[in-house]
Design goal:
By secondary structure, the chain is an all-alpha fold. The chain contains 2 helices and no strands. The chain is elongated, with a radius of gyration of 34 Å.
């Protein structure tokens, strides 16, 4: 059996199977629906802030590193 010669029939059979399963499952109702979303609000807290203060390196100090 040469698959290349029968590729059209294989394609049509695949389309027929896909169409049949699409029609068969299109009318089925959903038995389980997703639960309602739960929205939670976090308590307002102060944001920690870090301040870094330092003097910049000179070109000689950078070269030494």
């Amino acid at each position: 059996m040469n698959i290349a010669k029968n590729m059209e029939y294989i394609f049509l059979a695949a389309v027929a199977v896909i169409s049949a399963t699409g029609f068969a499952t299109a009318a089925t109702p959903l038995k389980h629906s997703a639960p309602a979303a739960v929205v939670a609000k976090a308590e307002a807290q102060a944001m920690p802030v870090v301040t870094v203060t330092a003097k910049r390196l000179t070109a000689a100090e950078k070269a030494a590193l």
